[in-house]
Amino acid sequence: MCGIIGYTGPLQARDVVLQGLRQLEYRGYDSAGMALLTDDGDFYLRKKVGQVSALEAVCEPGIPSHCGIGHTRWATHGGVTDANAHPHAVGKVILLHNGIIENYHTISRQFGFEGLATSETDTEVAAQLIDYYYGQTQDPYEAIRKAIHIIDGSYAFCILFTDIPGTIYAIRNVSPLVAATSDQGSFIASDVTALIPYTKRYFAVPEQHILTITEDAIRVETMEGEIIHPDMLEVTWDVEAAQKGGYPHFMLKEIHEQPEVFRKTVTPRLRDGLPNFDAEGIPDSIFEECKSIQVIACGTAMYAGMVGRAIIEMQLRIPVTVSIASEFRYDTPLIDESTLVIVVSQSGETIDTLAALRLAKECGAKVLSIVNVKGSTIARESDYVLYTHAGPEIAVASTKAYMVQLSVFYLIAARMMLVRGKNQEEVRAFISNLTAAADMIENALEQEETLRKQAEKMAFSKDAFYIGRGLDYAFSLEGALKLKEISYIHAEAYAAGELKHGTIALIEPGVPVIALATQDKIFNKTISNIREVKARGAYVILITKQGASVSDEVCDIHLEIPVEDDRFTVFPCAVLWQLLAYYTAYVKGFDMDKPRNLAKSVTVE
Ligand code: M6R
Fold it and tell me: Is the CB of 377 under 6 A from ligand 1?
């Protein structure tokens, strides 16, 4: 939520800031802005509603500056206007912010800033406060330290002082920041995608430390003035991974990357056909000793957890609860030392998930996280981490990250089967089905043209319904989310048997129903439910396993997936609904990489 970049060094600051903002745009795209300290001792500030391209149009090339900060906004406080765009300049301070200042109103009243603001944002008060203390102390470190003692909330701030050339100050609480120094200067950003054109070595900025960033060094100090040296991390992917590579959209590229990232996530964790987490230092005791499992996540990651629950309960008969992180964090959770908490997050920065993780630890639970971004806050704060190897996921709608989150849940289930006494051959067979899922994903990708044609048929529907029973219901939740977030069609997932208790009233001629019937045990029951919607005129897209016996009148189109074992049908099914959602948004002419009102990394409550 909001992307931040700061640069000081020998390169043209305008160009580095714009390049960084383009990389970070997926974090928010309501407006963009930049401030540069110019070589003649002045400053240059531009901000504009719209995407980074709108900002670029008003920032003429060749501005003589080697130090600057930039911001791409996802609006929280105050509408989408030029005035509310960041950075905000007050006196000698120019500041930008990712997060929410909870006590901004109180600060404004207490310090007499009311009526002086030029924007409706919570952020401007931070600029006012730091400028107020800078006026008193003439010391940037002291001014920031004093202001931070007063500010409550989440924040990542980058700050320029107009009379301190070539230097950026930064501090964060909860909201993420990474930083790096290379032979091309020093950088700070919301995430590493903005840094990789310049360096692969970086560090995660620790919370509540003040950074003084100059051309060839970054000083990191505690609030008590002690200098610390954070551990360096290394990006393992190349700059190309964060580019479109010939695809029209990141989302389509990421859908097509799924067989590869699936294999990268699963294969290194197999020894002699059995799951093994030794390299990650995950002790079997956490799987052996737990009496229950609590999964916590948001959005797509939470829906991966719903599938995880189904598969773990089915294989191990251990109770698994899945909680939405934003609810869990304010609950009085029923967990303790005997609970294994599994936290799932692509970004590793989702604020609700992070708060829920902290609460789970307070309750004494051990936390194992499934995270994509290396070194992210959730990864760092968990007791154990199983990284997914999806590489950078840029499209706001999650696809490949979901796929690898699922694969890690299946690996966990398999490891638990092993350590809880299931016979090795049974586990080997389970794993062999899992590894074969990569081919099924490839096979599903071959149905792209069929899905494109189906998307044309449903693109202008008002509603769509995803139905299924058992595991199929767990999968269909993600199918509905995918469609609604990028095509803006109202889509809901329902347990097929539940429709007749109310929702069937919404079925009218032509409404698309995506029906999943991949589970043998309940196949006939689901088909009966499909007949019920078909009888009311629904346009039914039916997905079954290959060879399922389905009579023509049940559906309008029948898609088959070549899977034998019911437990593994989610992998190809996910590809089908991802493609359906992608092409529906495509037909409607929407930007599926940057759907309206959304941002990739949700770092505000
Ligand atoms: O980074 P996280 O996995 O923690 O993000 C969780 C959700 O915000 C995310 O999955 C969101 O629902 C996506 N837009 C779904 O496509």
Answer: no
Closest CA to 372 of 509, 499, 193: 193
Please count the CA atoms within 13 angstroms of the CA of 3 that sit on its side-chain side. Answer: 30
Smallest CA-to-CA distance from 193 within 603, 602, 605, 600 is with 600
The whole-number pLDDT of residue 419 equals: 97
Reference 572, options 477, 408, 465, 446; nearest CA is: 446
**Which residues have C-beta within 8 Å of that of residue 592, sequence separation ≥ 6?**
249, 251, 395, 397, 486, 487, 581, 582, 585, 586
Q: How far is the centre of ligand 1, averaged over its atoms, from the C-alpha of 298 (Å)?
A: 6
Calculate the CA 400 to chain-centre distance: 11
pLDDT given for residue 71 in this prediction: 97
DSSP 192-252: GGGTTTT-SEEEEPPTTEEEEEETTEEEEEETTS-B--PPPEE--S-GGGGS-TT-SSHHH
Question: Which residue is associated with the tokens 């048997």?
Answer: 497
Cis peptide before 165 (omega within 30 of 0): no
Cβ atoms of 382 and 374 closer than 8 Å: no
Q: Is 2 assigned a catalytic role?
A: yes
Q: Is 361 a catalytic residue?
A: no
For residue 296 and ligand 1, the question of a CB distance below 6 A is answered with no
Q: Which of 362, 332, 449, 398 is nearest to 599 (CA)?
A: 398
Helix H or strand E encompassing 368:
strand 366-371
- Answer for the pair 527, 517: CB distance below 8 angstroms, yes or no: yes
Ligand 1 touching residue 185 (CB < 6 A): no
- Angle, CA of 8, 9 and 15, to the nearest 5°: 75
155, 98 contact by CB (below 8 A): yes
Which segments in the chain show pLDDT lower than 50? none
Residue 393 CA to residue 87 CA, distance in Å, equals: 27
Q: What is the pLDDT of residues 468-493, one digit of tens each?
A: 999 999 999 999 999 999 999 999 99
Q: Is the CB of 376 under 6 A from ligand 1?
A: no
Atom number in ligand 1 closest to CA 346: 3
Reduced to 3 states, what is the DSSP secondary structure of residue 449?
Answer: helix
From the centroid of its chain, how far is CA 527?
35
Residue tagged 């950075």 (tokens): 87
Query: What is the spatial distance between Cα 586 and Cα 451, in angstroms, rounded to a whole number?
Result: 12
